[in-house]
Amino acid sequence: MGRLFVVNLEGKIYSCKHCRTHLALCEDIVSKSFHCRHGKAYLFNKVVNVSVGEKEERQMTTGMHTVADIFCVGCGSIVGWTYETAHEKSQKYKEGKSVLERFKVSGPDGSNYWVGAHIGGSDADDA
C-alpha cells in the first residue's frame, strides 16, 4: 500500500463521522431527497477521499442501477455509493454522481445525523 494523500476541502464540508476525513462540499449537493436503510442520503456531483468497491447491479426504488459502494480512505468505513450506470432513461442524471448517507457523515456544522433505531448499533447493521 502506498502513501495516503488526503484532499482537504475549504468551506462547508461533509466529513466521515468516524475519522473526520473530508468527503464533499455543500455546494456540490445535487439532491437532498434520497433515502437509504438509515434514513436520509444526499446526492453529490463530486466526492473526495473515497475508494470505490466492486460494481454490482442493485434494484433501487427508482429502478435497476449499476452501483459501487464508496469507502472513506481515512478509516475504511462505508459512507455511501456511486452510480456507475442507470438503466432507466429518466435516471441517467445520476451516472458518475455519488450518494453519502447522512447516518455515516458529519454535517457542515459538525452535527451528526442519528437514526433512533440505530443509536448504539454496530457495523453489522450495514450488512
From TrEMBL:
The alphabetized UniProt keywords are: Metal-binding, Zinc
| Domain of life of the source | Eukaryota
Annotated Yippee domain ranges read 12-109
Which InterPro entries does the record cross-reference, listed alphabetically? VCBS_dom, Yippee, Yippee/Mis18/Cereblon, Yippee_fam
List the molecular function annotations (GO) for this entry. Answer: metal ion binding
Coiled-coil intervals in this record? Answer: none
Q: Where is the signal peptide?
A: none
The Swiss-Prot or TrEMBL record describes its family as follows: Belongs to the yippee family.
- This protein's name: Protein yippee-like
Organism name: Carya illinoinensis
